[in-house]
Amino acid sequence: MEAFLLGLSSGVVCLAYCAPVLVPCLMAGSGSTARTVGVVLRFLAGRLLGYLLFGLAAWGISESLLRSGYRESIIGLAYMVLAVALVLYGFLKERRPCTGSCAEVFGAPTISDRPRLSFLVPALAGLATGLNLCPPFLLAMAAAAQKGSLPYSLLFFFLFFLGTSLFLVPAPLFGLLKPFPAIRTVGRLAAGLMGVYYFISGLIMVAGGIKSL
Amino acid sequence: MKRDFQSPSNHQSFLSAFLLALPMMVLTFAMLAGPRRFSGPSQTAALIITLLFFNLLFFLMVYKGRTDRYRAVLFVTYAVAFVISFISHLIEARGSMALTEANLLRAEAPFCHIVIPMTLIPAALTKTIIFPGSILGAFASISGMFVLWIGASLSLGRGFCGWACFFGGLEDGFSRLLRRPVIKRIGAVWTYLPFAVLLVVVLTAAVALSPTYCLWLCPFKAVTEYVQVTSVKTFIQMVIFLSLFAGLVVVLPILTKRRTQCGLFCPFGAFQSFTNKVNGFDIRIDKEKCVKCGICVQKCPTFSMDDESMASGRSRITCMKCGKCVDACPKGAISYHIKGAGLAAKGDGQRLLFLYPAFLFLATMGGGSVSDAILRIIKLVTTGHIV
Predict the structure, then answer these.
(1) How many CA atoms lie within 13 A of A202 on its CB side?
(2) What is the ipTM of this complex?
(3) Which of these, A77, A197, B226, B266, has the minimum number of CB atoms within 10 Å of its CB?
(4) So where are chain B's domains?
(5) B197 touching A (Cβ < 8 Å)
């Protein structure tokens, strides 16, 4: 219950951290509301995986690992993985709100020809935001680490995830914007830009981590 | 391409052009003259040169019936003068272009209109302005810029970007260096990028409660001010600023003959496009006169004319009303238009009604910078020092 309430109380903050990644993902891409729900579920699944990984970390070696110089590098590398996925998703996938000339420019084979990667992008985005060390997350980490048992730690993070995720449930509503091709294009490009942002953030963290080693 | 037809002209007689320009002379004098401007012979000379320069170009706009060629001269001069004046002020006040932590803590960063979209959500949610600037200070204050922006939005819409933005003239100038573009085609999908940048910076600014565009993406930090390089992070920021400036403000405008920062990146431009909906002026194409030659599509600096525009008779929402297409149309099919008025109105009236507020904004925003830059140059010539 403590974990769920902690998640609930910090859900708005988590939503704020996730929104810049999730909203462009939702606005981009065509499809029915059911597919939009699918995007949210994959995003949440990725996020849950990230949380459970932290639950695992909280159980054992996390304190020493996260206090060392590796912390920045690990998170930085996670950001960079997300970034590459988002950049590919944003700038390479098919997007044709226009007619005529641009169709020739973007006529080459694109990532849309590789549906597996496209399918995984929301999950990867969720995973990387799940690995985000925001203040409420650190609180949860400290609370879970206190108990020192693996099942407890994983359960704690699962309930924490449920609490924070309640705020993401209305997210499919953003899918209502999808019928407008221009908005879809803007959403996809925005996702790519967020990828660039995360890549640079990751680069800075890795550079900082290397420097402190 | 050889032009085999001539554009109809809105040429005025000398006397009527002078009479039409007279109100602008009075208005610009009223806006620019003040006790400080007459504090010495150099100041007075700078003011007189500025007023003559501005009013001569306005007179020519009216007399020749052309807009963009004279607007561009002023707009580019304004941007260059702004950079000279702004950097001189910074060095005078701080000794450097770099912002230090102390400057930020004392809220000494000058506020710029590009920050406006990022401040709105945090202001609504937290009742604070997420910018380390002065609310009511005399120089580049937050309130002053908001008042100017509201006024410009109501009177010009996105015309702000073509007539009042102090950065736009830099790339406008670079975009005119070559006679023909080297890169002729840019995918239409990229014209949506400014809206994506807007979405990202608004969301991230609301989350981080800091102006993320200024911290990470503003190309004009290269010619204004930047956070002092003290870490890997600030070094990367500096590399981004310089790269974006070189790419979007210098190289791409030269190669494409377009304003690529405004048309493909600027979030404020995207934001300002929506104000075109509440503004009384727009650019219209008379479909009966249009021969679909596509010159307007090639010339538009912000990619606001396309095949769809020619079919619908309207420019895209991103139009900044610079008048380049109006000047370039060989059939005189494109014109400034007051919403609700007919397209068939004879004469130059609708263009002139747009020019008065637009030019007055340009003169008000740019006059001080131009006058100050002239003063700095006089100082440089006479004393060898610009500050």
Answers:
(1) 21
(2) 0.83
(3) A77
(4) 8-29+39-96+346-387, 104-164+174-279, 280-345
(5) yes
- Cα–Cα dist B33/B50, whole Å: 10
CATH fold of B280-345 reads: Alpha-Beta Plaits (3.30.70)
State how beta strands B281-285 and B334-338 pair: antiparallel
- Segment 221-240 of chain B within 8 Å of chain A by CB: 232-233, 236, 240
SS3 state at B336: strand
In this complex, the residue of A20, A97, A99 whose CB is nearest that of residue B203 is A20
A152-161, B291-300, B372-381: segment of lowest average pLDDT: A152-161
Residue A10 has pLDDT above 80, yes or no: no
List pLDDT tens digits, range B205-230.
Answer: 887 788 989 988 999 998 888 777 88
Contact residues, chain A to chain B, C-beta under 8 Å? 16-17, 19-20, 23-24, 95-102, 105-106, 182, 185-190, 192-194, 197, 200, 203-204, 207-208, 211
